[in-house]
Write a structure and sequence with these properties.
mainly alpha
């Protein structure tokens, strides 16, 4: 069994940053916006508020997706499937895992899907 303690630390740090960013945007870890979120009195019309809220929701969705990838990677470390391609079941190169610790596909499978 490989030692992925360094990858776990990187992923946990990344997770912490993502959760912090979600909180800064007024969202929970699940991506739900707080009901008391105020877009400020600087918005003079409903259109501006809607546009701002839509932008925030888009960013929240992106962060939530990224957080899901991190959590899935942590789960793969725990169940000893980390570093194994989810498509072909071959080992993902250590270089790829170092550059992108959230990788679930080897380069060959990722390229084939593009």
């Amino acid at each position: 069994m490989a030692d992925y303690s360094a990858a776990r630390e990187i992923l946990l740090e990344e997770r912490e940053k993502l959760v912090h960013q979600l909180k800064e945007l007024g969202a929970t870890e699940s991506g739900a916006l707080r009901s008391d979120l105020d877009f400020g009195e600087g918005f003079s019309d409903a259109g501006a508020v809607t546009a701002e809220r839509t932008e925030v929701l888009g960013i929240v969705e992106s962060l939530k997706s990224h957080l899901g990838e991190v959590d899935a990677s942590l789960a793969r470390i725990d169940d000893n499937t980390y570093g194994t391609c989810a498509r072909c079941a071959n080992r993902i190169s250590p270089e790829r895992m170092e550059v992108r610790p959230r990788s679930r596909l080897c380069v060959k499978c990722k390229t084939a899907m593009a």
